[in-house]
Automatic annotation (TrEMBL):
Gene3D superfamilies: Glycoside hydrolase/deacetylase (3.20.20.370)
GO biological process: carbohydrate metabolic process
InterPro entries: Glyco_hydro/deAcase_b/a-brl, LamB/YcsF/PxpA-like
SUPFAM superfamilies: Glycoside hydrolase/deacetylase
Protein name: UPF0271 protein
């Protein structure tokens, strides 16, 4: 069986639609994108422009909802009741969906952002809320989330197609979680190291943690952060490295 991986990137994380060139330069090297829905970054004009570029590049489109936290780019832990958080997340996804439909495109998946993603990786009730939102949506959607996390278990419980995600530019702990951004070595910028880690993740289904422990890791999608240093070069280099290693860059199959 030939190897393949989805290469996804968080995009539309700016506030002026004139700043689109950065995302445009990444688009040719990825197979799916997660578009900010306005709560941590972005706005309808930026969303529309990002959808337009994704459609032109045949890149699958996902919603990237977050806690309402523009001040901290959605990366601060927040405590919301499930009943209060649900409409906040649903509204974000519906906003993006309406813009996707207006351009004759298709919304394919949901991937939470920042603190919402990280909290849902270990908080079963929050993970279940996100899985429930996905299951109840008015069209079939996949859910991108951290491999081996509470999100994976929640999606299985709610009958949602889960796409296990790994990170090219982040370090892992021994329990398979992402090392907190404020910890030394959390962000990987060394391109040679990144390429080797990614190929090992895909071919050997493991990742070496910051403690030197090999952690089992089965992936279907790999994330590049669009706001990280040299993200365009990272996307380009990883895309070509994967192909040289015999790994096709291809989005997950659509849910019909």
């Amino acid at each position: 069986m030939s190897l393949q991986i989805d290469l996804n990137c968080d995009l539309g994380e700016y506030d002026d639609a004139k700043e689109w060139q950065h995302d445009a330069d990444i688009m040719p090297y990825i197979s799916s994108c997660n578009i900010a829905c306005g709560a941590h970054a972005g706005n309808p004009a930026v969303m529309a422009k990002t959808i337009e570029m994704a459609k032109a590049n045949k890149v699958q489109i996902g919603a990237h909802p977050s806690f309402p936290d523009r001040e901290n780019f959605g990366r601060s832990k927040m405590d919301f009741s499930i009943s209060r958080l649900k409409p906040i997340v649903v509204e974000q996804i519906q906003c993006l969906q309406s813009l996707v439909i207006a351009q004759g495109a298709k919304l394919t998946h949901i991937k939470p952002h920042g603190a919402l993603y990280n909290q849902a990786a270990t908080d079963q009730s929050l993970a279940c809320l996100l899985a429930e939102i996905t299951a109840e949506f008015d069209q079939p959607l996949s859910f991108y989330g951290l491999a081996n996390s509470a999100m994976q278990a929640a999606c299985q419980q709610y009958g949602v197609r889960f796409v296990p995600e790994g990170f090219a530019d982040r370090s892992y702990t021994a329990d398979g979680l992402l090392l907190a951004r404020d910890k030394k070595g959390a962000i990987i910028n060394d391109m040679a190291c990144m390429k080797q880690r990614v190929i090992t993740m895909i071919k050997q289904h493991t990742v070496t943690s910051v403690d030197g422990i090999d952690v089992p890791l089965y992936l279907e999608t790999l994330c590049i952060h669009g706001d990280h240093l040299n993200s365009i070069q990272t996307a380009q280099s990883l895309h070509h490295a994967l192909k040289r290693a015999g790994i096709a860059v291809k989005a997950p199959p659509l849910i019909l």
